Amino acid sequence: MPALKLLKLPPPVTEEWEWQMNASCRDIDGSLFFHPDNERGEAREGRVAAAKRICEGCPVRRECLRYALESGERYGIWGGTTEEERRATRARRRVR
């Protein structure tokens, strides 16, 4: 039987994630930023608006949005944007 070759991952680069330590959402319940199953209408709009208010004054909003766009984050509020807003931004970037 051939010897197994172990996959060796690079160590995490702290500098790439350090921005999260300064995020305004750091100590807030994460469920505010991710919709529960079947959430619709006013309930969803209210939750999204509350999450975006937190993002408005966040000192790392730009880094958060960049992460979400570069990683293809499909769920939640990141950098003050919804899933739909990020999809539209990525589509516009592809057109350019």
Could you characterize what this model shows?
- This protein has a domain at 18-23 and 42-95.
- It is globular and about 60 Å long.
- It starts with 13 loop residues before the first helix and ends with a helix.
- 11% of the residues are buried.
- 46% of the residues lie in helices and 0% in strands.
- By secondary structure, it is mainly alpha-helical.
Order of helices and strands: HHHH
Q: How would the global form be characterised? A: globular
* End-to-end CA span: 51 Å
Largest sheet: none
The number of distinct helices, counting runs of at least 4 residues, comes to 4
Structural class designation: mainly alpha
Rg result: 17 Å
Low-pLDDT stretches are none
Identify the quaternary structure here.
Answer: single chain
Q: Roughly what is the average pLDDT, rounded to an integer?
A: 88
Beta-strand content estimate: under 5%
Number of strands: 0
The helix content, as a percent range, equals: 40-55%
Q: How are the SSEs placed, and which strands pair?
A:
Elements: H1 14-17, H2 41-56, H3 61-71, H4 83-95
Would you kindly provide a brief summary of this structure?
This protein is mostly helical. It is about 45% helix and about 0% strand.
Descriptive key words:
mainly alpha, 4 helices, globular
